[in-house]
Write a structure and sequence with these properties.
- It is elongated, with a radius of gyration of 37 Å.
- The longest helix has about 40 residues, at about 120-165.
- A 5-stranded mixed beta sheet has the order 2-3-5-4-6, sandwiched between helices.
- It is α/β, with parallel strands linked by helices.
- It is about 60% helix and about 10% strand.
- Helix 2 (about 15-35) packs antiparallel against helix 3.
- It is built from 15 helices and 7 strands.
């Protein structure tokens, strides 16, 4: 591909590339911050990752809603941009109007491969458009696949919720309600499932949170029931279902950025550890909790819809995170404190103060090319029509005398003709 075509393709993708670079900076800052907070609680690190994922998710909206802060770190040729209409406002209209006038008048440009103002030929414009369309189609396809998978998971969760029965007479229901009251959770539904795809405790729902217990839970000991219910209620109290959905939406938007997937994975791990910390902070011995967690993971069965439901719900014992969780549970030096409202507000404000200046930053600008000056004045400059061949120059005085003589001869001829016509008419 020609270098100018590559340059034009990059200009076509400037907004998307700008958002990708800014998202990378935000996620990189979150990685550095969590590294600094490695000796803090898991809840603090989860807040950092969640704030970063939400920030990159709303980054395009904020960029369009606030004024631009222009810092010309990268300068691009405006003449190249005129060829594809990437300029804003009157500049793009001027270029389009001038190009249309040239086409109607059949005026030739500055060469067979260029139009006036430095733009590219129509064939190269079509090639650039084809590349841009291909890249956009690839990106939108990946985003739709991820969002479709999330949507199917939500539908599967709703279908599973309708198949489960409300635990109105379960032996563990009074304990569950008491623990929910102790944690300050008012509105919650407890269900009991006999479906093979739900073989472990799960939580889902944003507006109407639901905790589902497997049928085997009826035979569990009170200590095990207390541990399991505390962990699932911790997800509800922390609104983890909502942050889980937002993280997946951010992955769908930036699915080509590996940092987005890394951030979502780290947020998921810190989320589970934060719930483990809440269980331990309620007085559960670490060794007992680790033993129960291992038994639940060992008894886990893979059902028909388990992987689909997992995209829209929170299971207790994910095997991929089990080792790190057990090490944190058994480590007495790990802080177990959660986040207060003040700390949450401070963390959210810090993320917002980082997002707004970065979203308003426009690091690229256009340089006015000399060849495009005539086209970018105000959109009213007429096209340059090829001049007709010049006639031989005649001295001014000679030309004036000749014109006067010709005029006199014509006038005399006209006068004579009128006079003769009048005399003949009277004689008749």
């Amino acid at each position: 591909m020609r270098p100018d075509l590559l340059l034009q393709t990059s200009i076509d993708w400037l907004p998307l590339a700008d958002a990708a670079v800014k998202a990378t900076l935000l996620l990189g800052a979150a990685a550095i911050t969590t590294r600094v907070l490695r000796h803090s609680s898991a809840a603090a690190r989860h807040l950092v990752w969640t704030a970063a994922l939400i920030a990159v998710l709303i980054l395009p909206i904020v960029s369009m809603a606030i004024p631009q802060w222009r810092v010309p770190l990268v300068t691009l040729s405006r003449s190249t941009a005129i060829g594809t209409g990437q300029l804003g406002g009157g500049d793009a209209a001027s270029a389009s109007t001038a190009a249309g006038m040239r086409a109607r008048l059949g005026v030739s440009a500055q060469g067979p491969a260029q139009t006036a103002g430095g733009g590219r030929a129509p064939s190269e414009s079509r090639r650039s458009l084809a590349w841009g369309t291909l890249l956009f189609g690839l990106w939108i396809t990946g985003a739709l696949v991820i969002l479709t998978r999330l949507g199917i998971g939500m539908i599967a969760v709703q279908a599973m919720s309708r198949r489960t029965l409300t635990a109105s007479n379960a032996a563990w229901l009074p304990l569950a309600r008491q623990l929910a009251s102790d944690l300050g959770i008012g509105r919650i539904t407890f269900r009991r499932s006999r479906h093979p795809s739900i073989s472990m405790p799960m939580a889902w729902g944003v507006v109407r949170p639901v905790v589902v217990m497997p049928a085997e839970a009826d035979g569990w000991s009170r200590d095990r029931l207390r541990i399991v219910l505390l962990h699932e209620l911790a997800h509800v109290k922390r609104a983890d279902c909502l942050t889980h959905m937002l993280a997946q939406a951010a992955c769908a938007l930036y699915w080509m950025n590996p940092l987005a997937w890394m951030a979502a994975r780290q947020a998921r791990a810190e989320r589970e550890r934060a719930c483990d910390d809440l269980v331990l902070a309620c007085g559960t011995p670490g060794a007992e909790y680790a033993d129960q967690l291992l038994q639940i993971a060992r008894d886990m069965r893979t059902g028909r819809f388990s992987s689909t439901i997992a995209t829209a719900s929170l299971a207790m014992a994910n095997r991929s995170q089990l080792e790190g969780r057990l090490m944190a549970i058994l480590d007495p030096s790990v802080p177990r404190t959660g986040l207060s409202r003040v700390r949450t507000l401070v963390g959210s404000a810090a993320a917002l103060l980082t997002l707004v200046p970065l979203a308003s930053l426009q690091p690229f600008t256009y340089a006015q090319a000399p060849a495009a000056d005539a086209l970018t004045q105000a959109g009213t400059a007429p096209p340059q029509v090829q001049a007709a061949p010049a006639r031989p120059e005649v001295p001014t005085r000679v030309a004036t005398a000749v014109e006067q003589r010709i005029t006199q001869d014509v006038m005399q001829g006209v006068t004579q003709g009128v006079t003769q016509g009048a005399i003949q008419g009277v004689a008749q």
